[in-house]
Amino acid sequence: MTRTALSVDDVPPHIVEVCRRLGVAGYAAWLVGGAVRDLLRGKEAKDFDVATSATPAQVGEVFGKKRVIPTGEKHGTVTVLVDRPQHGREPVEVTTFRGEGAYTDGRRPDSVQFVDDLVEDLRRRDFTMNAIAFDPIVEKIADPFEGRVDLAAGLIRAVGDPLARFSEDGLRPLRAVRFAAQHGFVLDPPTEAAIPLTLEIFKKVSAERVRDELVKILLAKVPSVGLELMRTTGLLGEVIPELLEGVGFHQNRYHAHDVWQHTLAVVDATPVFSMPSGRAEWVPRLAALLHDVAKPRTAQDKPDAPGERSFYKHDLVGADMTDAIARRLRLSGDERERVAHLVANHMFWYEPDWTDGTVRRFIGRVGLEALPDLFALREGDVIGRGRGERPGTELDELKRRIDGELSRAAALKVGDLAIGGGDVMRILGCKPGRGVGELLRRLLERVLDDAALNDKAKLEELVPVLAAEIPELTP
Questions:
Q1: DSSP helix/strand/coil, 436
Q2: 97-113 pLDDT per residue, tens
Q3: Strand 155-156 to strand 186-187: parallel, antiparallel, or no bridges (unpaired)?
Q4: What are the backbone dihedrals phi and psi of residue 251, each rounded to the nearest 5 degrees, phi first?
Q5: CA–CA separation, 185 vs 191, rounded Å?
Q6: Of 49, 46, 44, nearest in space to 32 by CA
Q7: Which has the closest alpha carbon to 262: 250, 272, 273?
Q8: 431 φ/ψ angles, rounded to the nearest 5 degrees
Q9: Contact 433, 464 (CB under 8 A)
Q10: Distance in angstroms between the alpha carbons of the first and the last residue of the chain
């Protein structure tokens, strides 16, 4: 439900203080943008931005130059540092009312003109729901473009001419799609129709900005809303055209959907959970988006089953494609490796007759850190087949067995062995080299089959036996 009024109590005291001091000095000061939108929707608001009739220099006079950082003074933006009890100094972004010149780079205006009219400032904003302002001092809302009406209707509508808005900043079409996914809204028809007409401007947007919007879509409650809009508006063809190969591409009796619809269902069903500091929580969902990207390229018709297809090694081919896509999106090395690793390993099939050694090999191949991500992807993949299957049927017992192996402190990698490279070189009287590493890997294989072998004395006995099978270690 959209609220019809806001009060000063909805706004953090330090933000109110900035508006109050600007007002006392004779300047208009309004809260604008996403925080106002979220407050009106009854959501938690963050990143409060203040728009004012004061110029950057005048803001400096009000708060003192030592407390004003010229973060974007050329475009009218400064950061005011406000003392906040128990929080220290809090930064507040303050921007002068402005009009804008042409956008030749599809990102930023070539020039800005300071104005003293709030409506003119709101006129340059992207969508009506983001062109609402609130004065917390007098508790007044300014809504010249009927953003509250659109909020109540769940509608994303460009301010003024959508072609003009999207031609100014090429990222705005993708932002429209992202807002639709995040808020469960629909695009106003003229706004949606303008997206395919401005794709040339969108192409100017940096990969980093596109990636950040895509991540926000993936973290939405129902990301398929945004992903399907990306497809129908042409944005997907500019960002990840490989995925379009799966549209209408039939699979087999085990799937109720074509590759693209299956992908959407998997992304929606892949859970998002908190990750350790520095670990991106969206990685499993990006892996879900790309897990079957290679199916159309690896498809083979089954001669003995008309209408059926197999997708031999689509996981490995898909991992290579994923790596290339991740590089285009400018993912960090760690993020790229994590996503490609999940795609490469998503095709495991657990059977109750797996030996303990098979379970240990699975843990060693996937890696402990990647297991939660892989199970999240697998859960989504099972649900996304559309056959009413329960992921727990396949995963619960495997998770129990993995917990059992971990509780027994089983050796899962070379570093877990009771001896190391130094012991091998001492026993054989050899120097470091590939042969030492190969011998340690073979010892690990023995230990994976029989955990009791991970004993220093037992492994040292095996060293000369296995060394005889390794050319680099034989005289």
A1: helix
A2: 998 656 666 566 666 78
A3: parallel
A4: -105, -100
A5: 13
A6: 49
A7: 250
A8: -100, 165
A9: no
A10: 80
Distance of CA 346 to the CA centre of its chain: 19
pLDDT digits (tens, 9 = 90+) for 114-161: 888 999 999 999 999 999 999 999 999 999 999 999 999 999 999 999
Q: Are 12 and 94 in contact (CB under 8 A)?
A: no
Q: Is the dihedral of CA 405, 407, 410, 413 positive or negative?
A: positive
What is the percent of the chain where pLDDT is above 90?
A: 76
One-letter amino acid for residue 314 of the chain: H
Half-sphere exposure of residue 387, counting CA atoms within 13 Å on the CB side?
Answer: 10
Q: What is the pTM of this model?
A: 0.88
Cα(187)–Cα(375) distance, integer angstroms = 34
pLDDT for 163 equals: 96
Give dist(CA 249, CA 302) in Å, integer. 15
Per-residue pLDDT, 110: 62
Residue among 258, 189, 253, 180 at smallest CA distance from 223: 180
Burial 401-419 (b: 16+ CB within 10 A, else e): bbeebeeeebbbeeeebbb
pLDDT value of position 108: 66
